[in-house]
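User: I'm new to structure prediction. If I give you an amino acid sequence, what do you actually give back? Let's try with this one:
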Amino acid sequence: MTQVQTVTGSGVLNLRVGEVVEVLSEAEIQATLDERGELDELPFMPEMLAFCGRRLTVHKVAYKLCDTISRTGMRRMERAVHLTGARCDGQAHGGCQTACLMYWKEAWLKRVDPGAPEAPAPAASGESAASGASGGSGGLAAGRRLLPILEVAARKEPGPDGEERFSCQATELLRAAPTCLPLKDVRQYVTDVRTGNAGAFFALRALLVGLFNRFQDRSGRVLPSWLQIKGGLRWGFVKGRLVGATPSVTLDLQPGELVRIKSKEEIVETLNQDLLNRGMGFEEEMSRYCGQTARVLSRVDRCIDERTGRMLQMKTACIVLEGIVCAGAYTVSCPREFIPFWREIWLERVEEPA
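Assistant: Good question. You get back a string of structure tokens that encode the predicted 3D arrangement of the chain. For your 354 residues, that looks like this:
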């Protein structure tokens, strides 16, 4: 493959939320990737091949992201977007169930007129590969050439104990977004509004919450407790109290069931001082949904550790709820929209409406 370090010319689309784009063919995308299957250090993953040739809507402009690996704050990403409905299904990564929104470089997309007719669907698997072998612009032949490279790139070197380790966009984000984006850089909040990532009020609130959290983090280290605001807690004011083992409840919730997220006060009673319940964190952003009802989307028992690439196998499955994502209200309008995992002890069944 041709090694490409930067995107130039037609690769700069300056996309906005709501625009319709078409994902390029496998062959066109392959031409942008280096020998590791990456562009600007961002992997193109095997799970993304299924979207080639499809039309999708820009969901968020992914020019920044929160660092969940080394906790350095916000990082800057160049010329990338998230597309509506394009979450990773984990099939090439050991069945990981995190369901991350995938990053799409603008060089892998083209802007289209929503009213224009769509191109014919790619050739079926039984058709001849001759068109791909003769230099066609897409088709499964290109996909067959690209897929093995991407599958190899989806694995890291095994751990010291021989344990399988994975590589994906989430594990490689510090390489793909090497530059920190300071909280005080007000241009990011203008960009949030200009691109359609957030409204003006949401962006302003995110800035104020970020400034408040920065003050709280510092005051908790240097001020006596009687001068601290709510004990130096970050916005959302979640404080775990337990020491030692934390409680559990088994509800055996199944997809489609209706549940209510318990109150913050009830959930706090299940958390230790690190805001963990049996190793799973309850973050301040999740407290925004306390008291709401939602349907169970799925049960989750495995996910990749972004720091190490190891597959984490949960002893007890946790729950994903329909329509509940991290909106970035308390994390400087981060557009990643993580899907939170919920312990069953934080939920309760409710009666179906009549």
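You can read the tokens as a compact description of the fold. Here is one thing that stands out. The domain at 236-349 is CATH 2.30.30 (SH3 type barrels.).
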